[in-house]
């Protein structure tokens, strides 16, 4: 199957032409020719072009506009993008030589990724299902442990997770929701199916970039939007605020919600400030918080004021030195006691990390069947736990074809991609695995799909992408259409993390199918009621009015 | 609001006002030092040495003029320089990014980047300090303008304004104390145009006061004229308003009480002082009083921002 697609692609790419000529008349013919320089790798699925190198029906208008913009147009928009991001300080810091860090504009690629409505519906249903199952699992782990008693998940595995938190055993937050904010990393495999690469139910970040990317795209390349109805995403902060309010312990006055950041030195500080501003709530640091008599207070200019719900953006380990790491200076002593007493809600709940451990990941499809009685809609990537001797030997023998990840880590740290690794690296990894098999998992290599991406010289090249949609679990699970598409900016690279040289793309979910059949009159058709005339001084207004009346009479 | 945020906003206001007034002073001194002294009349002497004293830079008397000006513009290592003030303002703004509007943050950020880069043509040349001062003046006006139009008139704005007002009053007093003739009469009374230029009240003075711009009427104007927004009296008045609005119990609040006493004092002196009376002492007294207000403000509003022990 794969071979045939490659052959077809090579035939198609024999046509000639160049992306970048500005005044090409756009027709199907020139589209193909103009994209000649763009060669989707036949081994992977391309999101914009099909196996023959032709734009997919839904992306054809996008490709045509890209051709019209041309190389210069894209480079120019890129320069404006960098200037805007620098001015707004939408940057991230990269370690330079000698420990000096540099602020670089966040690398947003200007070619969007497009998902049609029908496909998104499937993804969305799959995610809702998965997140509900993960939430059940967290509840179960800290209460009845039924899934363990059923023999589906081994207890040693759960208890050995680095984010398993004994301190919160038996605590059930209001509504039974633990995973208020979740972001699952999805990839499209070589055969075109969506797979979940990992779950993030601790403190997934990136939503601020999703929103900023969309705002920037609308400013920089409005022409790309012309042929599409892209579903908006800017209601996310309100969704989140609603979920945070819903979980707050009942208060006589309106619940006070805060976002808790480790501080400006944190790499995601921009996002923390962004969310606080967008929700209109305070951004607090540990020094702003204190617990007295099992109630959480804020230190304000008017003395202590109560806080009801905390959206915390730091790991369990640091939130309460009395219960977790005693040396943490970022934490608030007594917070877990206040949480246990039901006086404060914390999102995500402490202890949720047990559900996104990479070893537990393997059991998520079982969880879906066990808790929900449904078949999983989204598939896992085949994963090998290395405690079993037979599996381990198989993995060690085939390490050059697999991906190895440390459990309990995130952000792409410590990941080894077998096919790209040197023999020495593989050998070192074998030693590490033999020493502590429980700390590693192995996965089949996923052939991430590609999307055309603007290179520094303005031409388009295929680059690998993943997708992190963001879900908010309040009274129900809501998912913002699309999410963060992360892209590996280096040719052939499969690592998309922004800390490791990855960029991002705007992700468009198209309003089609059932979405189009929304009731109500479209905006352009509504007419405002008659409004009083603006007056221009004493006479002109009246004169104009009289003239108009005369004209219409 | 959070004590830490209030504290940051207060200092954001202070740093912005400090950058602006440093820029004005540098500009005035730069202009006046290009020319000699007029022989027709005595002038208030106010040069780069005086400027360094005002801005709290220790002067070892060895500075050349261009050294002094460069120190006050681009030298980020000198805490008194415009660039240092602007950098501090940006650092402060970064930690309150959720409180100020995106527009305001952008204005502060681009100001810093522009000044830091020093990439404007001509900034390296002889006229550099002058051009940079102009840039800072314009940009701070922009920042305050955006703040005025985009920030909610709430506690946050009160603390931002309060910081700016304290700093403006303090800067004006500093300039007066260096430039004014003292009791032992070392520098003679004279033309004080440079003082007006250095605080930016030239035009307002001409419209408000008929007397020639000599040291005494200029000093009275800058101290007492309530109609001029950057005068000490006007700043103290506005400061009072800001604290009353921000305070939960203004009737028993030490900073509020102290500010209102200072306002009354200034008003009394304006009416009671005979012409030609000694102003230096009043300036000194007022400045000390402002320092006490600053102290009271930290204790009453920002105590929560202090380390744990101090709060408990």
In short:
The complex is a heterodimer of chains A (553) and B (312). Helices cover 32% and strands 20% of the residues of chain A. By secondary structure, chain A is of the alpha+beta class.
Write a concise keyword list for the protein shown above.
heterodimer, A: 553 residues, alpha+beta, Rossmann fold, Dna Ligase, domain 1, five-stranded mixed β-sheet, globular, disordered N terminus, B: 312 residues, mainly alpha, disordered C terminus
Question: How does this model look, in words?
Answer:
- The complex is a heterodimer of chains A (553) and B (312).
- Chain A is of the alpha+beta class and 553 residues long.
- Among the domains of chain A are: 2-109, no CATH class; 250-343, Rossmann fold (3-Layer(aba) Sandwich), CATH 3.40.50; 382-445, 2-Layer Sandwich (Dna Ligase, domain 1).
- Helices cover 32% and strands 20% of the residues of chain A.
- Chain A is built from 17 helices and 23 strands.
- Chain A has helices at 2-12, 28-34, 60-87, 117-141, 146-149, 155-159, 207-220, 222-225, 236-247, 269-279, 316-319, 335-340, 358-361, 364-372, 389-397, 423-435, 540-552; strands at residues 91-95, 101-105, 108-115, 181-188, 194-200, 257-260, 282-284, 289-292, 295-300, 303-306, 309-312, 345-347, 379-380, 383-385, 402-406, 416-417, 440-444, 450-454, 460-468, 470-473, 477-479, 484-488, 502-509.
- In chain A, strands 3-23-22-19-18 form a 5-stranded mixed β-sheet. In chain A, strands 13-5-4-20-21 form a 5-stranded mixed β-sheet.
- In chain A, α4 (117-141) packs across α14.
- Helices cover 67% and strands 0% of the residues of chain B.
- Chain B is globular and about 55 Å long.
- The relative contact order of chain B is 0.13.
- Classes of the chains: A alpha+beta (553), B mainly alpha (312).
């Amino acid at each position: 199957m794969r071979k045939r697609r490659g052959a077809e692609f090579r035939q198609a790419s024999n046509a000639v032409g160049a992306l970048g000529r500005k005044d090409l008349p756009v027709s199907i013919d020139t589209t193909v020719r103009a994209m000649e320089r763009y060669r989707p790798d036949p081994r992977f699925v391309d999101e914009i072009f099909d196996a023959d190198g032709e734009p997919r029906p839904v992306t054809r208008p996008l490709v045509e506009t890209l051709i019209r913009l041309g190389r210069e147009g894209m480079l120019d928009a890129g320069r404006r993008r960098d200037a805007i991001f620098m001015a707004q300080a939408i940057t991230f810091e990269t370690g330079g030589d000698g420990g000096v860090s540099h602020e670089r504009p966040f690398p947003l690629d200007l070619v969007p990724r497009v998902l049609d409505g029908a496909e998104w519906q499937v993804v969305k249903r799959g995610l809702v299902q998965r997140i509900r199952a993960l939430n059940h699992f967290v509840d179960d782990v800290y209460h009845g442990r039924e899934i363990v008693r059923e023999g589906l998940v081994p207890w040693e595995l759960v208890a050995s997770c680095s984010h398993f938190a004994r301190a919160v055993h038996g605590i059930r937050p209001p509504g039974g929701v633990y995973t208020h904010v979740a972001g699952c990393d999805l990839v499209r495999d070589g055969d075109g199916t969506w797979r979940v690469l990992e779950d993030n139910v601790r403190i997934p970040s990136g939503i601020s970039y999703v929103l900023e990317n969309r705002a920037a795209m609308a400013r920089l390349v409005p022409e790309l939007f012309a042929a599409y109805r892209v579903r908006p995403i800017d209601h996310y902060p309100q969704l989140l605020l609603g979920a945070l309010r819903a979980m707050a312990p009942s208060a006589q006055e309106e619940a006070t919600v805060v976002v808790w950041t480790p501080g400006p030195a944190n790499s995601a500080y921009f996002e923390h400030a962004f969310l606080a501003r967008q929700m209109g709530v305070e951004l607090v640091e540990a020094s702003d918080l204190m617990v007295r008599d099992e109630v959480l207070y804020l230190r304000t200019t008017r003395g202590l004021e109560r806080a009801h719900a905390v959206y915390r953006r730091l790991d369990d380990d640091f939130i309460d030195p009395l219960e977790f790491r005693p040396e943490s200076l970022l934490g608030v002593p007594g917070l877990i006691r206040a949480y246990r007493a039901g006086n404060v809600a914390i999102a995500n709940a402490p202890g949720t990390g047990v559900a996104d451990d990479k070893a537990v990941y393997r059991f998520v499809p079982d969880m879906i069947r066990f808790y929900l009685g449904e078949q999983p809609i989204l598939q896992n990537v085949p994963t090998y736990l290395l405690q079993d001797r037979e599996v381990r030997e198989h993995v060690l023998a085939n390490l050059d074809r697999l991906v190895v990840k440390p459990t309990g880590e995130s952000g792409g740290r410590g990941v080894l991609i077998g096919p790209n690794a040197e023999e020495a690296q593989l050998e070192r990894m074998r030693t590490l695995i033999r020493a502590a098999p429980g700390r590693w998992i192995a996965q089949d290599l996923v052939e991430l799909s590609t999307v055309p991406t603007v290179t520094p010289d303005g031409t388009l090249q295929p680059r690998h992408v993943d997708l992190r949609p963001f879900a908010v679990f309040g009274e129900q699970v809501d998912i913002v259409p699309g999410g963060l598409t992360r892209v590996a900016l280096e040719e052939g690279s499969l690592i998309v993390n922004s800390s490791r040289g990855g960029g991002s793309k705007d992700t468009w979910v198209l309003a089609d199918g059932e979405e189009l059949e929304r009731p109500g009159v479209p905006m352009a058709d509504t007419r405002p009621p008659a409004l009083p005339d603006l007056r221009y001084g004493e006479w002109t207004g009246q004169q104009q009015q009289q003239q108009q009346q005369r004209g219409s009479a | 609001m959070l004590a830490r945020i209030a504290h940051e906003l207060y200092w954001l206001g202070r740093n912005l006002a400090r950058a602006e007034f440093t820029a004005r002073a540098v500009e005035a001194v730069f202009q006046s030092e290009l020319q000699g002294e007029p022989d027709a009349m005595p002038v208030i002497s106010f040069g780069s040495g005086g400027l360094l004293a005002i801005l709290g830079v220790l002067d070892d008397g060895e500075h050349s003029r261009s050294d002094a000006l460069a120190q006050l513009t681009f030298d980020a290592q000198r805490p008194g320089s415009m660039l240092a003030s602007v950098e501090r303002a940006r650092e402060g703004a970064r930690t309150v990014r959720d409180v100020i509007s995106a527009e305001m943050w952008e204005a502060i950020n681009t100001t810093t980047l522009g000044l830091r880069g020093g990439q404007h043509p001509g900034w390296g040349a002889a006229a550099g300090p002058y051009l940079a001062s102009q840039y800072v003046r314009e940009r701070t006006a922009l920042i305050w303008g955006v703040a005025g139009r985009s920030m909610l008139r709430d506690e946050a704005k009160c603390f931002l304004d309060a910081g700016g007002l304290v700093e403006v009053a303090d800067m004006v007093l500093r300039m007066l104390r260096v430039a004014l003739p003292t009791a032992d009469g070392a520098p003679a009374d004279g033309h004080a145009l440079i003082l007006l230029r250095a605080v930016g009240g030239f035009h307002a003075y001409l419209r408000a006061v008929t007397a020639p711009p000599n040291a005494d009427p200029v000093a009275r104007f800058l101290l007492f004229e309530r109609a001029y927004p950057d005068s000490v009296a006007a700043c103290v008045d506005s400061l009072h308003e800001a604290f009353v609005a921000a305070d939960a119990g203004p009737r028993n609040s030490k900073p509020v009480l102290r500010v209102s006493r200072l306002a009354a004092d200034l008003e009394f002196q304006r009416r009671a002082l005979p012409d030609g009376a000694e102003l230096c002492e009043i300036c000194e007294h007022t400045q000390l009083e402002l320092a006490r207000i600053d102290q009271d403000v930290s204790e009453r509003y920002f105590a929560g921002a202090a380390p744990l022990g101090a709060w408990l």
